[in-house]
Structure formats: structure tokens, C-alpha cells
Design a protein that fits this description.
By secondary structure, this protein is an all-alpha fold. The protein is about 30% helix and about 0% strand. The termini are far apart.
Length: about 60
Amino acid sequence: MEGRLGHTIQRDETVTQRADRGRAYDMDPEIVRIAMSRTYEGPIRVATADWHLPKGAYGENAGPC
């Protein structure tokens, strides 16, 4: 869309340039397989006292206190 309009969303770089600076989180291949599936056959768990935010949730500085 930026290319078609001739304008960028950010003043100093394009969306593509910003995305190219990103890095993927190290993920368990089984978690990726489950996430990419259309159905879920595994157990359903409820939150417990030892629950914590998953990798990447809310950025680098967020998470359990």
C-alpha cells in the first residue's frame, strides 16, 4: 500500500524495512505445528499459580512481575 500511495506510514522507513529488522522468537516446533493446524486435539488446560506469559507476549519488557 505504501508503494501504491507513494508515502510511508513511518517518516523514516517503510513497513518492509521495519519488518526486515525484526527477529523470530525461538519456538518449539511442536507449538508451531499446533498453531498452524486447523483443529486442536490436545488437552485444554486452565491457568494455575505458576502460569507465565508466552515468549514475545507484549514485547521485551512485559511479563510477570
